[in-house]
Amino acid sequence: MSIAPTIGVFALQGDVREHVRALEAVGAKAVAVRRPGELEAVDGLVIPGGESTTMWKLADTFELLEPLRLRIKSGMPAYGSCAGMIMLADRIEGGVEGQETIGGIDMVVRRNAFGRQVDSFESDIDFAGRGGLRAVFIRAPWVESVGSDVEVLARAEAGDRIVAVRQGPLLATSFHPELTGDVGVHSYFVEMVREL
Fold first, then answer.
1. Is 51 a catalytic residue?
2. Which of 16, 42, 74, 106 has the least C-beta neighbours within 10 A?
3. DSSP, res 26
């Protein structure tokens, strides 16, 4: 892997600019991904926070859903924050009828589990044993359960809920690290991409 991996940010909806800035701050080359050809040119992908049902529908409309699934199955590293976590889940609860995901992580994720927009909050969490990290939760999901191959990287104090996981080359958080100025999660993901 090159010193500066090329990491795409799913750019059809969500916190695209914020993730681009965080990735560039930790030494990656960040590019927007809107088309299958752009997806083929990246070493890894970030799926940002936003609205998971809108992301699913737009990915389908722009003919990105199947290419995303194929790249994930072939081992491309991916990181999903908030709605991106939902998109990487094999199973979801609280989704709209017929809602699809990209999948890849053996987990059940509950949409909007921490409540509505007015219930948004910030919390300090221990992420991947790296010490304190400020986490922003906005209409955030949480992980109901994980398979045996999934590593739990963080829990929120609110109910001891699972809020960050990793399975092989896939990483997901229910919070928005791109909104805090703390690039610890992005640094962790770029390290994952370099290792693969």
1. no
2. 74
3. T
